[in-house]
Specification:
This protein has 148 residues and is α+β, with helices and mostly antiparallel strands. It folds into 2 domains: 34 residues; 111 residues, Peptide Methionine Sulfoxide Reductase, Chain A (2-Layer Sandwich), CATH 3.30.1060. It is 42% helix and 21% strand. Strand 4 and strand 5 form a beta hairpin. The longest helix has 32 residues. The radius of gyration is 23 Å and the shape is globular. The N and C termini lie far apart (72 Å).
């Protein structure tokens, strides 16, 4: 019985200590995620750009879609490929600037695209493949303007 009570006491201590560690870890993760920023990158085919962005440490989420087109149109691949919508294939990049600064994301971006080419990237041709950087935070403009 003495061993059982000792084991139960040790289990309780470890359980309580373990729960505190889990809670502390979750608090740290929430604090880090509270500072998530977003940038939108158009750079040719969005699947390739998404793969590149997903490989960067500090990028917490990516979503492919379309940006900068006719707001009266709901874009889909077939419609955007007509070249009449104004939409660009774009990757929404959510990142933690405490882990990866925007400047590093833009270095990776400009390493794989050629911003001087109009309406194409590599074998992808059409206005939907035009490059572009779209921001939601005015503070990002300085980093965008000095990148390349």
């Amino acid at each position: 019985m003495k061993y059982f009570l000792t084991a139960a006491l040790i289990f309780c201590i470890l359980f309580i200590y373990g729960c505190d560690k889990i809670t502390d870890s979750n608090k740290e993760e929430k604090m880090l995620n509270a500072n998530i920023k977003t940038i939108y990158l158009a750079g040719g085919c969005f699947w390739g750009m998404q793969k590149l962005m997903d490989s960067l440490k500090g990028v917490v989420n990516t979503t492919v879609g379309y940006a900068n087109g006719n707001k009266e149109i709901t874009p889909d691949y077939k419609l955007v490929c007509t070249g009449t919508t104004g939409y660009k294939e774009t990757v929404k990049v959510d990142y933690n600037p405490q882990i990866i600064p925007l400047e590093n994301i833009l270095k990776a971006y400009f390493y794989v695209i050629d911003p001087s080419v109009e309406n194409e990237q590599g074998n992808d041709k059409g206005p939907q493949y035009q490059t572009g950087v779209y921001y939601t935070d005015e503070d990002d403009l300085a980093a965008i303007n000095t990148a390349r």
